[in-house]
Amino acid sequence: MSLLIVGTVAFDELITPFGESGRIMGGSATYAGLAASNFMNDIQLVSIIGEDFPEEYMDRFHKRQIDTRGIRVVEGGKTFFWKGKYHNDMNTRDSLDTQLNVLAEFDPVLPEAYRNTEFLMLGNLTPAVQMKVLDQMETRPKLVVLDTMNFWMDNSWDELMEVLKKVDVLTINDEEARQLSGEYSLVKAAKKIATMGPKYLIIKKGEHGALLFGEGEIFFAPALPLEEVFDPTGAGDTFAGGFIGFLAHSRDIDFENMKRAVIYGSALASFCVEKFGVQRINQITREEMHQRVQEFVSLTQFEVTLQD
Amino acid sequence: MSLLIVGTVAFDELITPFGESGRIMGGSATYAGLAASNFMNDIQLVSIIGEDFPEEYMDRFHKRQIDTRGIRVVEGGKTFFWKGKYHNDMNTRDSLDTQLNVLAEFDPVLPEAYRNTEFLMLGNLTPAVQMKVLDQMETRPKLVVLDTMNFWMDNSWDELMEVLKKVDVLTINDEEARQLSGEYSLVKAAKKIATMGPKYLIIKKGEHGALLFGEGEIFFAPALPLEEVFDPTGAGDTFAGGFIGFLAHSRDIDFENMKRAVIYGSALASFCVEKFGVQRINQITREEMHQRVQEFVSLTQFEVTLQD
Q1: Cα–Cα distance measured from residue A70 to residue A46, given in angstroms and rounded to the nearest whole number
Q2: Least confident span in B19-33, B64-78, B85-99
Q3: CATH number, residue A172
Q4: Is residue B306 in a domain?
Q5: Is B243 domain-assigned?
Q6: What total number of domains does chain A contain?
Q7: pLDDT tier at B112, thresholds 50, 70, 90
Q8: Which of A235, B3, B15, B178 has the fewest CB atoms within 10 Å, i.e. is most exposed?
Q9: Helix intervals (H) in chain B
């Protein structure tokens, strides 16, 4: 059970109706890695940072036994930075500042030890970079999960189509699924996207839950209804990291187990939004996790009989 | 097991991206009554129509053993008419024409035989009319379900507050729940609305499913993901009619049974949108219903163990 996660390790600065975070730890690989570390130890991160990235943040990875040999530190470089402000509904946000910095020169080289990893998560990055990672794998992973976004559909369509052919699970949101497929109906969109390569598709609908399509079946997990969403940043990456972390830990990629993985991913995402940044997903106890999953059970499970 | 449904019986004219319906049978009591008739026979409708309402449409009620003695026919009057056009996403629509006609003089008088009915559904009408119905009940029903909308929150707040005190289940959509409570979080909204009277709250989120709040618990049912939504008109009333019809048939208003009722209501709503108007909910076989409910089972049910 080994898991390789490629994505951003970054600084975020967040403004929500509840307050301002200041400069904190962020990035897709950060959220996905820390989320997955709730299930397993042997996680390898591949990313790029500048010299300004604090040792204290790196220690957060090490405390979770996350292997950071794949994180390149650029001498004199500055770490990718994003600043955003959430509107009152917490569902929409404005980007106030984006500084690519060292991310502009991200050209991942996998350490030898990472090239036979069984589970691979390709975070939202340019499709060419995602392909470069796949090309360096010596053994085809048991499962490849890829995240992408509308920006790459607009700007790197051909490269995206190439990399999609090589992945097993695609995770995107509902608008992206519609854009990628040209279909409004998510059921039709899923059928079309399946012809592009991924055998499984997860459509993330934020507060409206997530749909898993595959093997001719559909599974739906709601988002947990919460009194308060404090900071939605990273919820999608946390979900994806929880999903693949659960699968990698159990080494079972059966559809039934994927359903469970979707529930565990949703549970982790529901913790994520309770505090700023990675604060909450870094302090979940086993008991809290089980209790949260039980909340999903009581939220969704029912019994019917043919007598009804 | 008796069920009284008060609401509109009307003409609709619908324009969707798939075509135009022409003038067809519509109205909240129509959809709710026909939906409920999939579970039981003893359904009483209270509404008002004009002389222009075709005998053929009335026969659709009688074929389902629905008692129409409570539908007042106004001599020389014209039936309530609504014309609407759906946008391409099928989630938003424009009202093109609304003719209240006889509905403006709706002052329901319950036939003697209706005054001890056990289950009561008050469709979306002015709160004063809903109250008038409640006042005529000789025995307090076992369960009162009330539907309302933002228009009455804007225009009849005090009357709405009065009638809410007297109902058990309120069904509204998410925007209406937010307006009624002044809370954006649906969990907080539900808590606030519980203090207004209804012990149970159903928040209908259309394609995003429905939430049932009550007894300190939350249950969620997704909408069935469909290849095509042909006509969403009446889906909410069909859901509500299915919900109360299932409960009235089983005579069990336990929270566990309410969960089932939400699933059956959602199943009926998923049929409703497949064709124009009431066409589809009027031709559901028992086998189709069970098959549809099984689709909800496979869509939502999963198994977790403490070993995960």
Answers
A1: 4
A2: B85-99
A3: 3.40.1190.20
A4: no
A5: yes
A6: 1
A7: very high
A8: B15
A9: 28-36, 55-63, 127-136, 150-155, 157-164, 174-181, 186-194, 235-250, 255-272, 286-300
Residue B2: pLDDT band with limits 50, 70, 90: very high
Residue B151: both structure tokens together: 């228009």
Residue B186: which of A90, A225, A256 has the nearest Cβ?
A: A225
**B103: distance to nearest CA of chain A, Å?**
36
- Residue of chain B with shortest Cα separation from A259: B302
Which chain A residues are Cβ-neighbours of B88 within 8 angstroms?
184
Closest CA to A237 of A129, A148, A165: A148
* Strands laid side by side in the A19-26 sheet: A19-26, A10-16, A81-86, A93-99
**Nearest CA to A62 among A38, A39, A34?**
A34
Residue B117 domain-assigned?
A: yes
Between CA A257 and CA A237 the distance in angstroms is 19
B41 domain residue, yes or no? yes
A93-130 confidence digits (pLDDT tens): 999 999 999 999 999 999 999 999 999 999 999 999 99
CB A28 within 8 A of CB A7: yes
Which residue from B263, B177, B271, B240 is spatially nearest to B36, judged by alpha carbons?
A: B240
The DSSP bridge pattern shows strands A169-173 and A200-204 to be parallel
Q: How far is CA A260 from the centre of its chain?
A: 16
**Domain span including residue B56:** 3-300
The answer to whether residue B306 scores a pLDDT higher than 80 is no
